Amino acid sequence: MSKPDYLISTPENLDLHLELAGLGNRVLAALIDTLLTWTLVLLLVLACTLALGLTENSPLLDNLRTVIDYCVIAVAVLLALIILFGYFILFEGTWHGQTPGKKVARIRVIEQTGQPVTWPAVIIRNLIRTVDVGLMLIGLACMLVDRNERRLGDLAAGTLVIRERHPAEGSHSLKISAGDSNHGFVDIGGVTPQEYELLVSFLGRREHMSKNERPLLAKKLDNYFKVKLQAHDSTERPEDFLEKIYLAYHARAEQAAD
Fold it and tell me: Residue 78's domain spans which residues?
């Protein structure tokens, strides 16, 4: 596993290790997203040109034709601005910190606390994107200087970009019991990548915890995930329930990859 770059101490007294996205992954994601947005803008320009051509050859009065042309251009400019700004805000807000480019690069925007990114943070970081990109790539310079690789938008919004670890990564070191209790159904649709990281962190470190600390933390996580997943009727031991969540999350990732 790659060396973690960012450490968060959680309320459960666990250290959540996250790997920062890295400059290469962020540049790759930015290139993909830029290509997609400008492709949409190009299609918009072509549609605008076609519309202007139709009005030019239509039997309209010159004054009316001029008004229509100005309206078409104004709408096209407005839609272009919506695409250039709204693309990142829409995807990061609805895809929990990811855009198509970030999804390909397997990186994600999160809050500095380790929680999923919120809409206000998404809006702030992307409104400042024009400053980061426009002023001689000042955002790139900030990322090179900041220890957590944050651009101005991240600093203002209180966010950072991490590499999203696939559930299969690092799982070889986990000791999971093969008891029947782990084969039951559990709906893990509400488990976020950050919560999965927290779960993996506990399962990977529990063998090295003290006899008093291990059951205490297991119980805290058990209570947290039972409330999160509305599994109050579960009577399994805390660690058995946590292992079941891990296996269900892992199985879902494997199905998505097929």
Answer: 20-164
For residue 31, the tally of other CB atoms under 10 A from its CB is 13
User: Which spans in the chain are helix H?
Assistant: 23-56, 62-94, 100-105, 119-127, 129-134, 138-145, 152-157, 193-205, 213-229, 238-257
Q: Please check whether residue 6 lies inside any domain of the structure.
A: no
Using DSSP bridges, classify how beta strands 159-163 and 6-9 pair: parallel, antiparallel or unpaired.
unpaired
- Tell whether 4 is covered by a domain: no
d(CA 111, CA 238): 28
Give, as one character, the DSSP assignment of residue 151: -
pTM of the full structure: 0.72
Does residue 179 register a pLDDT over 90? no
Q: Looking at the DSSP assignment, which residues form a beta bridge with residue 258?
A: none
For residue 22, how far is the Cα from the chain centroid?
15
Q: At residue 178, what are phi and psi to the nearest 5 degrees?
A: -105, 25
Of the candidates 131, 37, 142, 33, the one whose C-alpha atom is nearest the C-alpha of residue 81 is: 37
Q: Are residues 188 and 80 in the same domain?
A: no
pLDDT digits (tens, 9 = 90+) for 85-94: 899 999 999 9
**DSSP for residue 182:** G
Nearest-angstrom CA–CA distance, 93 and 72:
30
Mark which of 136, 164, 192 sits at the end of a domain: 164
Residue at 137 is within a domain: yes
- DSSP codes of every residue in 3-27: PP-EEEE-TTS-EEEE-B--HHHHH
Q: Give the dihedral sign, CA 243/247/252/257.
A: positive
End-to-end CA distance of the chain: 23
- What pLDDT does 1 receive? 43
Residue 163 CB burial class (10 angstroms; 0-12, 13-18, ≥19): buried
